[in-house]
Amino acid sequence: MIRADHLRVPRAHSRAAVSVTLALTLAVGLVLAGVVVLRDRASASHAGGCHRFAADHAARLRDVTGSGRSVVVIGDSWSVGYKLTDPARAWPSRLPGRVRVDGFSGSGFSAHASSCGAVSYATRTRTARNADLVVVEGGLNDFDQPYAAVRSGFDRLVSRLAGHDVVVVGPAPAPRRLAGARRVDRWLAALSRAAGIDYVSSIRLRLPYLPDRLHLTLAGHREFGDFVARHLPA
Known about the structure:
The protein is about 45% helix and about 10% strand. By secondary structure, the protein is of the alpha/beta class. The protein has a single domain, classed as Rossmann fold (3-Layer(aba) Sandwich), CATH 3.40.50.1110. The protein is globular and about 35 Å long. It comes from Nocardioides panacihumi.
């Protein structure tokens, strides 16, 4: 018969097991705490980014430039002049007419191109109510969106701009999103053709980009703006 005292775990071994358990518990706790902190920081950073984009959007809406026919540009960070020292010198400043810019960084044709809420192009057509010409520029932020989402957003946009002269300017070949830009360019070209809307493809343009390989330099804005201006109806 086995004696009961033979089954007892040595006290030193028991203390070691407890120490290991406590250490593992503490480590797991620290990891979880770190995840929460990182998540909170990411959330705060995202909220801060959206707040900045909204402020830039409001500022650009107030800055109407030029004279002549009323032109409204609905677009993304390129139209806003994101990362430029003087955003007012972004590409829309190269267009003829009295130009008003309704641009929201990160937005696009599809509803979920931006994670900042309801800021897709179709939600901002009210700005164009009395415009003589509406220029809709973008597609780079739709680079990872499915065709159905881009088509749905495009259809809503066109429906809300019914009765206006509209020109759609597709995405340029920004190196950071080149494959997606090419795909969206094909989609927008076909959708515009089906809707009877003028489409300007910029996918073959060679433009100078900032180090982020996504946004234009000031020279790039000049080139892009002059390109768009040449393709607008008289």
